[in-house]
Design goal:
Blueprint lengths: L1 H26 L6 H32 L3 H5 L2 H16 L1 H9 L1 H5 L8 H29 L8
């Protein structure tokens, strides 16, 4: 039963991560207003927390509640999955840094300033993150079905 609960928590964390990124994509549009800017700041914080939950629950599954660490470490699809997850994490730095720069304006009750070019960049990065996250289930299914096992 604990294996099923671990898998469930991992899936819920992944769904939450994706949902928060979709919400971020929907909220981020110009002209920006105070309410949406504050929501973006909070949603991005929740996105970071959800990413941490995905990482923790995934590590728990790999080390204790899955097929065993040896299986995962010897599977190329697992390495690809981790690589995509790291790519999303690195890409998320740009929107997060943008939203963090808004903090002083938000604390002052003001609408943060953002150029059209910067807004396009943030929106593009969020879209790339979403596309990359859509690849993760395919890699996970391939891995779980035994594809990608490296010869010893």
């Amino acid at each position: 039963m604990v294996y099923a609960v671990a898998a469930y928590l991992h899936f819920v964390a992944i769904f939450l991560l994706f949902a928060l990124l979709v919400l971020e994509h929907q909220l981020f549009r110009l002209p920006l207003n105070f309410k949406r800017a504050r929501s973006l700041f909070r949603v991005d914080l929740a996105f970071g927390i959800a990413a941490g939950l995905v990482l923790v629950t995934g590590a728990a599954r790999a080390m204790r509640y899955g097929k065993g660490l040896d299986y995962y470490l010897n599977n190329s699809f697992f390495h690809a999955k981790i690589g995509v997850f790291v790519l999303v994490a690195l890409l998320s730095i740009y929107p997060t840094a943008t939203f963090l720069r808004w903090r002083p304006a938000l604390k002052a009750g003001e609408v943060p300033a953002i150029s059209a070019a910067s807004a396009r960049g943030v929106k593009l990065v969020i879209r790339i993150e979403l596309a990359a996250l859509l690849v993760l289930p395919l890699l996970a299914v391939m891995m779980a079905r035994g594809y990608g096992v490296l010869p010893r």
